[in-house]
Amino acid sequence: MNVTARFLVVLDADSTLIRNEVIELIADEAGRGAEVAAATEAAMRGETDFASSLRSRVEELAGVPTSAFDCVLSRIEPTPGVTALTDAVHARGGLVGVVSGGFHEILDRLAPTLGVDMWRANRLEAAEGILTGSVDGPIVDAQAKADHLRAWAAEHEVAPHRTIAIGDGANDLLMIAAAGLGVAFNAKPAVRAAAPLTVGPVDLAQLIPLLP
Q1: 12 belongs to the catalytic site
Q2: Per-residue pLDDT averaged across 90-115, rounded?
Q3: Helix (H, G, I), strand (E, B) or coil at 118
Q4: For the chain: N or C, fewer Cβ within 10 A?
Q5: For residue 132, what are the CA distances in angstroms to 78, 87, 126, 127, 163?
Q6: pTM for the model
Q7: What's phi and psi for 38, nearest 5 deg?
Q8: Does the active-site annotation cover 203?
Q9: Residue 1 has pLDDT above 50, yes or no
Q10: How far is CA 133 from the centre of its chain?
């Protein structure tokens, strides 16, 4: 039987739930961090198609051993206020979801430690413990983010107007538009311009007063 909730908060992961861009940390392990960082920034500003950009950036990860994920996890910095926010959501009878253009290989270990109830991200293809440079399965793009917000709300019997979406990049715009309240958090200019609400301080606890 599905758990019902009073409301649902859905966050982006990279540069929202955490301070980092995980694909850049993985690329550092291959000595290609600078190139991938530039491509990621362009994608988050909405200058390139996200799916095409992700595929090209993941190609740069070919040859990285999956054992490098431990090093990547050790470098991740949770965004200030994240556990205060998730604790406040739970105390008020809500649920926290994360939907990310990043990777399950990291979120599967990180999300439970930050109070996240459910999450969805991309998967990296690997063979014999080495990344192949391909994405395994459908890419989590802007449409997928909005679709997951709606699906989770329906699954947990949350009315659409009782959903909150929080993100920073162009890939979050459809999710922000689909939510009852969309929040641009530490966001790129295009997202700040489109979102109903903008939060500037990089502190997720600032969002607690918005919770129903």
Answers
A1: yes
A2: 97
A3: strand
A4: N
A5: 28, 38, 5, 7, 37
A6: 0.93
A7: -65, -40
A8: no
A9: no
A10: 21
* Domains, in order of start, for the chain: 8-210 (3.40.50.1000)
pLDDT in tens, 72-99: 999 999 999 999 999 999 999 999 999 9
Q: 120 near 40, Cβ under 8 Å?
A: no
- With a CB cutoff of 8 Å and minimum separation 6, the contacts of 8 are 94, 95, 96, 97, 149, 152, 153, 156, 158, 162, 163, 164
Joined together, the tokens standing for residue 71 give 């090093």
Radius of gyration of the chain from Cα atoms?
A: 16
In this predicted structure, what is the pLDDT of residue 51? 87
**Hey, CA dihedral for 11, 105, 39, 47, is it positive or negative?**
negative
Task: Find the mean pLDDT for residues 19-48.
Answer: 82
Whats the size of the chain, residue-wise? 212
Longest dimension (CA), the chain: 48
List the structure tokens of 146: 């909005």
Span 159-179, mean pLDDT? 96
Distance of CA 102 to the CA centre of its chain: 6
In the block, which residue shows the tokens 């990547």?
72
Q: Which residue has the higher pLDDT, 185 or 29?
A: 185
